[in-house]
Amino acid sequence: MTDPTPALFRPGLAAPGLAAPAEGSSAPVIVAIDGPAGSGKSSVSKASAARLGYGFLDTGAAYRALAWHALAHGADTSDATAVLEVFGDFDYAISLDTTDRWVRVGGVDVTTAIREPRVTDAVSGVARVAPVRQAVNQLFRRLVASAGLPGVVVEGRDITTVVFPDAPVRILLTAAPEVRAARRSAEMTDQDAAKVAAALHQRDAADSTVVDFLTAAPGVEVVDSTHLDFEQTVDAVLSVVDSTMGARDGR
Ligand code: DC
């Protein structure tokens, strides 16, 4: 008989290639980073993780992979029922290794495909579906807990507030809207800057109806990268990690 449990919930999924936690090992330190598109969240989080010797979990990749999966099934990503239907056989895996990053759906490598504009355009629809968010959030907690790593930098829009509200380090990475739009269009050299800015504002507006990622929750440190370059932003994040962990350890 086939296993009726959605693939997402099956054991043994957790990031192949990563060691199982040693018997009696302590839970990884979680550095939770939220922020809007173009704040540098993803690249800064990954670089911070590498400098700390931690793993890195890009949570947006799960929503992108589900949007890719929905599109592959010809599902209407603006229809919650259709999204839930394809979610039933969503077999997702992601690497937490900063030096070997990949995302797979049903064994297919979708690392690059999930960055395509057609996926980006569809992703807000799937990220809006509450049961999807709940299941995916559980998956994130499981992936981190079973990674066998000293720490994991987890990046996404609701990480400091919903997914890991008790993480020892919680950071909201922001930047002025015009700076975020300029950074995004510099990344996408093949697209018109005004169009990129309009798409970014539209996606912020759609996503902020689901999660407030522009305001820091109590206890969340703000790192504003408006006037910082990339390395300075990574340094600012690492300095928050150092001071927060230092205070926690009585340093
Ligand atoms: O960070 P990103 O652009 O790869 O995120 C893709 C989409 O998923 C975006 O619409 C925001 C959404 N998302 C979310 O709702 N919650 C998260 N924890 C991460 C991403």
Structure, described:
With 251 residues, the protein is of the alpha/beta class. It folds into 2 domains: 126 residues, Rossmann fold (3-Layer(aba) Sandwich), CATH 3.40.50.300; 92 residues, Rossmann fold (3-Layer(aba) Sandwich). 44% of the residues lie in helices and 13% in strands. It has 9 helices and 8 strands. The chain has a 5-stranded parallel sheet with strand order 2-6-1-7-8. Strands 3-4-5 form a 3-stranded antiparallel sheet, covered by helices on one side. The longest helix is centred in the C-terminal third of the chain and has 19 residues. 2'-deoxycytidine-5'-monophosphate binds next to helix 2, helix 4 and helix 8.
CATH classification class of the largest domain: Alpha Beta
Main sheet specs: 5 strands, parallel
Total number of helices: 9
- Tell me what portion of residues adopts beta-strand conformation: 5-15%
- How many domains would you count in the coordinates? 2
Order of helices and strands: EHEHHEEEHHEHEHHEH
Give the helix level as a range of percent. Answer: 40-55%
Low-confidence stretches: 1-24
Structural class comes to alpha/beta
- Rounded to the nearest angstrom, the radius of gyration is 18 Å
Tally of DSSP β-strands = 8
CATH architectural arrangement of the largest domain: 3-Layer(aba) Sandwich
- Adjacency order of strands in the biggest sheet: 2-6-1-7-8
CATH fold annotation of the largest domain: Rossmann fold
CATH superfamily of the largest domain: P-loop containing nucleotide triphosphate hydrolases
Separation of termini?
56 Å
Shape summary: globular
Mean pLDDT: 86
Which small compounds were modeled alongside the protein? 2'-deoxycytidine-5'-monophosphate
